[in-house]
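In response to the reviewer comment on reproducibility (Comment 2.3), we provide here a single inverse folding case reported in full, input and output, so that an independent group could reproduce the run without further information from us. The structure tokens appear first.
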């Protein structure tokens, strides 16, 4: 179990929703109840949730449509719940992006087991995503210490790889030269050390960033560098 994980319950049966919320709170979760699909979509856009329990038969926007819209911005697990024990509903829910499917009546142990299984799976996937950065045709694999561009391996030194990884982790944001020196070289920038600049130059050559000015790893004059995440 993930202590303190936030579970959003989207269920129009208030009594059932409150029962699930109470049971989950007893097992260490934080819960949030939405009685309508529209409310759930609005709330989930504003507030982070680790998992959503989603009823299919909702008033207004049904659960299928909620799931479809939810997948445009929400990456965490979704468990659909329905009173209809029909294969069509299960298949449709999974095709729209649900991660699991429970048929009513919902039993406490099954609910808890399904939630914990999805949270474990989500945590594993998150760890994998943290170890792999991808921007278009560029892939940076931290565990393998490897880089591929357009399916071709790019040979980098350990220092070049470390610099590329740091820039990739801050893709789309300016990274100051002082911060790069401190993080990679381990000491404060004295205004003279050019190691980072040399590595940037080598990275650009190896990654085909030949335009003038460079478009993939941009220089922010007087400040630092910016890794352009949409230029690959």
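Designed residues, in position order:
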């Amino acid at each position: 179990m993930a202590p303190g994980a936030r579970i959003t319950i989207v269920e129009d049966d208030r009594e059932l929703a409150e029962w699930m919320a109470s049971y989950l709170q007893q097992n260490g979760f934080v819960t949030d109840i939405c009685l309508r699909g529209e409310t759930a979509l609005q709330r989930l856009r504003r507030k982070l949730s680790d998992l959503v329990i989603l009823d299919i038969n909702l008033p207004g926007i049904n659960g299928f449509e909620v799931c479809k819209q939810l997948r445009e911005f929400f990456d965490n697990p979704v468990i659909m719940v329905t009173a209809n024990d029909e294969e069509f509903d299960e298949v449709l829910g999974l095709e729209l992006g649900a991660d699991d499917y429970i048929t009513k009546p919902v039993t406490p142990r099954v609910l808890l087991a399904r939630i914990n299984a999805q949270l474990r799976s989500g945590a594993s996937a998150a760890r994998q995503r943290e170890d792999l950065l991808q921007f278009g045709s560029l892939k940076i694999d931290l565990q393998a210490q490897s880089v591929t561009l357009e399916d071709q391996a790019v040979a980098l030194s350990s220092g070049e790889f470390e610099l590329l990884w740091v820039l990739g982790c801050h893709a789309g944001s300016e990274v100051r030269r002082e911060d790069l020196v401190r993080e990679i070289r381990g000491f404060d920038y004295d205004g003279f050390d050019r190691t980072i600049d040399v590595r940037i130059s080598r990275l650009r050559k190896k990654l085909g960033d030949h335009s003038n000015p460079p478009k993939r790893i941009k220089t922010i004059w007087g400040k630092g560098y910016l890794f352009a995440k949409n230029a690959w």
